[in-house]
Amino acid sequence: MNRLRFGQTDLWVSPLCQGTAFRTLPRADGPEARRVLAHALDIGVNFFDSSNAYGWGGAEEVLGRALAGRRDQAVICTKVAAFGPPKDGEGKGAPMPFTRANLFAQAEASLKRLNTDYIDLYLLHQPDNTTPAAEIAQSMAELVHSGKVRYWGVSNHSAAQLREYLELNSPVPPAGIEEYYNVAGEHLEGGSRVARLEAEVFPLLRQSGLGLLAFSPLDTGFLDPGRTITTGSPLAGLAATLDQVAADLGLTRTQVCIAWVRSRPEVSCVLAGAESPEQVQENWQGTQQPLPSEALSAIEEARQIYRQQQAAER
Predict the structure, then answer these.
(1) C-alpha to C-alpha distance for 23 and 89, rounded to whole angstroms
(2) Which of 68, 233, 279, 297 is the most buried (most CB within 10 A)?
């Protein structure tokens, strides 16, 4: 598989990143999850994403087991959550602010679960809305200087929050972000989060050269071909265009969705959560199929109509 440079780092990664935030497979060590991750590595995917909050360490453990003896073939991104595990098994637990002590402790725990000496890309999973940005940046810089982390960045942060980190002019600035991005972009947190990303964050990425790991190419599953879409709904029109493009090109809707995300110049890699070797193969193929200009134009027209209809319904 071809490799590309993630932002301005020396991380050379596959255009497809395999995630571990499984929806149907357990977020824990098990043969099915290991088989998915091993197959991804076998076909040339070298970029893997996780978080201490996925299965509260379970996803990192299975990734560490799957990469045993093959760590040098992989680039690992993992994240640190701003909260702890829930007491009752549901939702979020107590806040875990990004103090230096907590960031170091959580990084050490992730390293142990991942069975590695270093994390290639360590991200703040979300803002903690408590710790000053300068203090967090200093702690992340110390993690980099310690050798435990190679690069750091943020996920699920607003443009204003990202800009604050960039304007610190830290000697170890953030190297990349992980963000929700797909052709629809209406099914996470309400409203068009994708429209805000394009309008507010993309300019920052172009100015700074940060890498972007784009997650949820099927819009949290709403564009999954196996999911029923209400006839006459705004999403039905967009899905029909995607299916027509897929039929014209001999692809699947999933592959068209991934190819569309991949076509955006601000996007470095597409993060997808395959849960079988067959899905890994399908996702990989989507990153290898550039969409012709006619297809991109048709999708863009359908996307704008979809946005207008969604805005009218809100």
Answers:
(1) 16
(2) 279
Burial of 190 (0-12, 13-18, 19+ CB in 10 A): exposed
Note whether residue 78 is domain-resident: yes
Cβ distance 138 to 109 under 8 Å? no
Burial of 59 (0-12, 13-18, 19+ CB in 10 A): buried
What distances in angstroms separate CA 271 from CA 95, 172, 261, 312, one per listed residue? 27, 25, 10, 30
The helix/strand/coil state of 50 is coil
Given the structure tokens 């000496």, which residue do they identify?
117
Question: Tens digit of pLDDT for each residue in 50-85?
Answer: 999 999 999 999 999 999 999 999 999 999 999 999
In a domain, 295, yes or no: no
SS3 of the chain: helix, strand, coil, percent, to 5: 45, 15, 40
The CATH number for 139's domain is 3.20.20.100
Q: Strand runs (DSSP E) across 59-195, as ranges?
A: 75-80, 119-124, 149-155, 176-180
Model pLDDT for residues 191-228, shown as the tens digit of each residue? 689 999 999 999 999 999 999 999 999 999 999 999 99
**Cβ pair 15, 269 in contact under 8 A:** yes
Distance CA 224, CA 113 (A): 31
What domain range includes position 48?
Answer: 4-221+254-290
